[in-house]
Amino acid sequence: ALMNGLDFTLTARPAVLSMEPEVSVGSEIQALALVGGALAVATKKGLVVYQANRQPEWLGEVSGPGNQEVTGLAPCGGNLCLSRHARHEGLAVVSLRDPSSPVVLGVAPLAGHGADVAVQGATAYVAEGHHGVGVYDVSRPGQISLVQRLDPGEKIVSVAARKGLVVAASHQRDLYVYSLEGGTALLAHVRSDRKISRVRLLP
User: Fold this and answer.
1) What pTM value is reported for the model?
2) Do 96 and 75 contact (CB within 8 A), yes or no?
């Protein structure tokens, strides 16, 4: 997988600065996240961290047991939450305070394989396949705890969260929209005419 040089300072209108030279990540890219001045890259071999500048420079990496595949990334409370394609230690909170030496602050087991993660406040939402969406309290990274589970009865492949809403996407092209105001309630079920890979809520 390759990344071209991008201007990360232009958040409203990103512009490609150059097509060469390219930066080789060495594995298929699953997701990206900007945390401070660092660019976190989720790959099938683990988490790789680059300096987020005009020509991304390798800083460090985190590889789980057996080089676990990282499937999703989301900034959380100054740290980074990541989902892994695993049940044991499928959710992790990583500190990028020193991007050249990422530190795993805490991990939690999942009911299913982690496919994606979204964060709102101190709560992480993890797409866990046939086990729906796991809702986790990550306010204390060393003691991550399961709060509840959103289970629409389908295999969930992606999840997004923002301003009191959680959207879960299934492999069957279904979108489930939940309200978090005063509890958790299903607001809508929408059928997409295309296969869904990732779902995100934009500002």
Assistant:
1) 0.85
2) no
Do 93 and 81 form a contact (C-beta atoms < 8 A)? yes
The three-state secondary structure class of 88 is: coil
Rounded-to-integer distance, Cα 72 and Cα 134, Å: 14
pLDDT digit string (tens) for 6-64? Answer: 444 444 555 555 544 555 666 788 899 988 888 999 988 889 999 887 778 889 888 65
Give SS3 for 141. Answer: helix
Decide: helix, strand or coil at residue 1. Answer: coil
Query: What residues form DSSP beta bridges with 18?
Result: 5
Task: Give the three-class secondary structure for 153.
Answer: coil
Backbone angles phi, psi at 140, to 5 degrees: -120, 95
**149-157 — which CB contacts under 8 Å span 24+ positions?**
149/111, 150/125, 150/176, 150/178, 150/184, 152/176, 152/186, 152/189, 154/130, 155/129, 155/130, 156/115, 156/127, 156/128, 156/129, 156/131, 156/132, 157/115, 157/116, 157/127, 157/129, 157/196, 157/197
pLDDT of residue 156 exceeding 90: yes
